[in-house]
Amino acid sequence: MKYLFLIFFINFLPQYAGKSLSRDGNYPKTFEDIKKEIAGYSSIAKAIIDLAVHGKAQNRSYERLAVFADTIGPRLSGSKNLDAAIKYMFSALQEDRLENVHLEPVKVPHWERGEEFAVMLEPRNHSIAILGLGSSIATPPEGFVSAEPQQISFLTLLISICALTEDSTGCISCLLASGDRVKMGGDDYPGPLGTKVVVYLKMGAKTYPDSSSFNTVAEIVGSKYPEQIVLVSGHLDSWDVGQGAMDDGGGAFISWEALSLVKDLGLRPKRTLRLVLWTGEEQGGIGAEQYYQLHKKNISNFDVVMESDEGTFRPMGLAFTGTDEARDIVKEIMTLLLPINITDIYDTADGTDIDYWMRDGVPGASLRDDISKYFWFHHSHGDTMTVQDPNQMNLCAAVWTVVSYVIADMKEMLPR
Ligand SMILES: [Zn+2]
After folding, report:
1. How far is the CA of 248 from the centre of ligand 1 (A)?
2. What is the whole-number distance in angstroms between the Cα of residue 28 and the centre of ligand 1?
3. Quick check: 376 and 382 in contact, CB under 8 A?
4. Are 305 and 233 in contact (CB under 8 A)?
């Protein structure tokens, strides 16, 4: 037992404890020095938490999001709503007196859903709730009736269907069970196999030429190393149903809140704290890809890239991608969040828009929250403000701000 205990103990020591680090080549630094440096931020962290959770800024990100989501609504790539959302945020960030507020042009896909209608004709008449996948094509204007289904289960609402049909004009449609419905705990129901099922389907989707859009950017310029960047982000575009309040209104608005809180406290970190609200994320990270192409020549100046895009429910901690050395530092930063008891660090940051940077070795972080209900609403009519909770958003904003501010202000960039 003693032996086991010893191994256990040793494994939990930071792997370079006691060893000197010389990350900028100027002076050797031990992990103890870094711990002390981070501990020095405890009063600032407490001030951020107080302001975000209990103070004047309490509920601000929620209230801002409510006005935005109710006014603009869903924001599909290429839509007028997305244009309106970008204009709205450009003004709002200026009014918030953030710095270098600007738009960076991006070409984004433009697809529109159009009319959608499906009904089962055999073995009984039953209307089917469908939601076309993005980039779906239209049926003929009169719609079509499925011919010989090649693989079929019995149709039960949106669960358990895979009916592959081909009509005489060569249209191929695939009715899928809602993935989100299955993730909510719905089981696949095979139904009476062999039953002939006939479906009438009509879809009016259209794809237009790519259209102009923008990534929306604002900053608090660094006091000592303005060229070095700590990037916080969420995506401003959304799916075309619901309000995009959760995906990714919450992530975008806690990222804005991080800069607002830092500014309200009169803080200016050594490095630039940069907010990016991505466009075209739902089409595969189009805005982020173009941003990466434009800025990758400065990759050595990107300290950490952060994105919140998995909801802003009750936060549990931070997911991180980076070297063990960087992880130990971020783990130490998370101890500053002890007053709200959100100190855990998880493996592997997640975010379509920050992947480009992480693949090239830039440390990355994403918010880890309780996503147990995320797929109840994801990409559906259910994604509205009723999903959001002001207290949870306050806590998310506090985590997001403490982590980004401290990394932006530490003596050295995170090692990579
Ligand atoms: Zn998203």
Report:
1. 5
2. 41
3. yes
4. yes
Q: State the DSSP code for 300.
A: G
Convert the pLDDT of each residue in 140-171 to its tens digit: 888 878 755 443 333 332 322 333 333 434 44
Give the tokens for residue 100.
Answer: 């270098």
Angle between helices 80-95 and 251-264 (to 10 degrees): 10
Q: Which residues are within 5 Å of ligand 1 (an ion), measured at CB?
A: 247-248, 309
CB neighbour list of residue 383: distance below 8 Å, 6 or more residues apart: 238, 239, 241, 242, 243, 244, 245, 246, 247, 377
- What does the pLDDT look like over 71-129, one tens digit per residue? 999 999 999 999 999 999 999 999 999 999 999 999 999 999 999 988 988 888 989 88
Crossing angle of the two packed helices 390-409 and 60-72, in degrees rounded to 10: 110
Residues belonging to the active site: 281
- Angle of CA points 300, 303, 308, to nearest 5°: 130
Residue 293, Cα to own-chain centre: how many angstroms? 20
Q: Characterize 170-205 residue by residue with b for buried, 16 or more Cβ atoms within 10 angstroms of its Cβ, and e for exposed.
A: ebebebebbebbbeeebeeeebeeeeebbbbbbbbb
Cα distance between residue 145 and residue 168, in whole Å: 10
What is the domain partition of the chain in residue ranges?
A: 40-112+209-409, 116-204
**Is 3.60.21.10 the CATH number for 40-112+209-409?**
no
CA 37–ligand 1 middle distance (angstroms): 35
Instruction: State the distance from the centre of ligand 1 to the C-alpha of 270, rounded, in angstroms.
Output: 30
Q: DSSP label at 133?
A: P
Longest dimension (CA), the chain: 78
How many Cβ atoms are within 10 Å of 81's Cβ, its own excluded? Answer: 17
Q: Counting beta carbons within 10 angstroms of the beta carbon of residue 390, is it exposed (0 to 12), middle (13 to 18) or buried (19 or more)?
A: middle
Query: In 3D, which of 231, 275, 271 has the Cα closest to residue 256?
Result: 275
